[in-house]
């Protein structure tokens, strides 16, 4: 963090360190997550490569890695499904704190909810993180911006809000009534295009909906033009499933 700060490359700290700040969670972590703009990822990797670290860009559409002995830093500039791209808005709303005694800025809670809401793998589900963030900072969230972030994938946000309503009945006031009314009305009136043979489940899990694509013939919801990823990016991301497990 000191090296990045000295370099002048804009970055945000996310992951467990940000979650600890917003929710007072005591969860341990095995790495450090830093978020940068896509145009800066190679600058970050080059910086630490020159400092003697091993660096990689295993997933060119969203993530680089920095290794120093047993320590790992993820350099994140998007998300595995290609949706939550780090842009100027992340930095406009970053939160100033100290992490390990170093002055840094944290990823905003709205963008954390946006990116974590889609992580619904068989062995990793970030829904609890989403609910804990709403529990602790829901009353302070920019809900208008959050809805804009989800855009046409607003159903994913609504699903988490229903779970929040179930998990924390005494904290329902953390979500403004107008948000529930707005999204519920959309669910009733916006039934979508029934002829659209697309599986958007692949935006939630890179593994659990592959049969729908490969066997049942659904169009992959991650792939352009309905998604934001290329076939080459998906091949790399899918090919790493076994290694990551």
In terms of DSSP E residues, the strand content is 15-25%
Distance between the termini: 29 Å
- Written as H for each helix and E for each strand, in order along the chain, the element string is HEHEHEEEHEEHHHHHEHEHH
Helix content: 40-55%
Q: What's the CATH topology name of the domain at 1-107?
A: Beta Polymerase, domain 2
Alpha carbon gyration radius: 19 Å
| Record field, number of beta strands | 9
Low-confidence stretches: none
**Can you tell me the overall shape?**
globular
Largest sheet: 5 strands, mixed
Order of strands across the biggest sheet? 1-2-5-4-3
- Structural class of the helix and strand makeup? alpha/beta
Task: Work out the helix count.
Answer: 12
Regarding CATH, which class of the domain at 1-107? Alpha Beta
General description of the model:
Strand 6 (95-99) and strand 7 form a beta hairpin. Helix 5 packs parallel to helix 7 and helix 8 (154-167) crosses helix 9 (177-189). This protein is of the alpha/beta class and 245 residues long. It has helices at 2-7, 15-23, 41-50, 88-92, 109-116, 127-137, 143-150, 154-167, 177-189, 210-214, 231-239, 241-244, and strands at residues 12-13, 32-35, 54-59, 63-68, 71-76, 95-99, 102-106, 198-199, 219-220. The model has no long low-confidence stretch (mean pLDDT 95). It contains 12 helices and 9 strands.
Summarize the structure.
With about 240 residues, the protein is an alpha/beta fold.
Write the layout of secondary structure elements.
Layout: H1 2-7, E1 12-13, H2 15-23, E2 32-35, H3 41-50, E3 54-59, E4 63-68, E5 71-76, H4 88-92, E6 95-99, E7 102-106, H5 109-116, H6 127-137, H7 143-150, H8 154-167, H9 177-189, E8 198-199, H10 210-214, E9 219-220, H11 231-239, H12 241-244
Parallel strand pairs: 2-5, 8-9
Antiparallel strand pairs: 1-2, 3-4, 4-5, 6-7
Helix pairs in contact: 5-6, 5-7, 6-8, 8-9
């Amino acid at each position: 963090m000191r090296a990045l700060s000295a370099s002048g490359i804009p970055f945000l700290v996310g992951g467990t360190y940000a979650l600890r700040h917003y929710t007072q969670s005591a969860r341990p972590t095995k790495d450090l997550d830093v978020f940068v703009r896509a145009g800066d990822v190679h600058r970050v990797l080059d910086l630490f490569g020159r400092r003697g670290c091993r660096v990689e860009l295993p997933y060119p559409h969203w993530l680089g890695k920095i290794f120093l002995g047993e320590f790992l830093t993820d350099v994140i500039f998007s998300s595995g499904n290609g949706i939550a791209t780090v842009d100027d808005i992340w930095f406009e709303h970053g939160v100033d704190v100290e992490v390990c005694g170093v002055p840094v800025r944290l990823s905003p809670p709205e963008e954390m909810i946006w990116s974590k809401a889609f992580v619904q793998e068989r062995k990793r589900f970030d829904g609890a993180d989403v609910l804990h963030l709403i529990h602790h900072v829901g009353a302070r969230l920019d809900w208008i911006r959050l809805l804009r972030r989800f855009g046409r994938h607003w159903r994913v946000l609504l699903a988490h809000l229903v779970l929040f309503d179930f998990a924390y009945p005494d904290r329902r006031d953390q979500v403004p009534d107008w948000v529930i009314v707005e999204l519920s009305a959309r669910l009733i009136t916006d039934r979508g295009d029934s002829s659209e043979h697309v599986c958007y489940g692949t935006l939630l899990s890179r593994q659990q909906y592959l049969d729908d694509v490969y066997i049942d013939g659904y169009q992959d919801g991650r792939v352009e033009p309905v998604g934001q990823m290329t076939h080459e990016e998906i091949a790399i991301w899918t090919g790493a499933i076994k290694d990551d497990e």
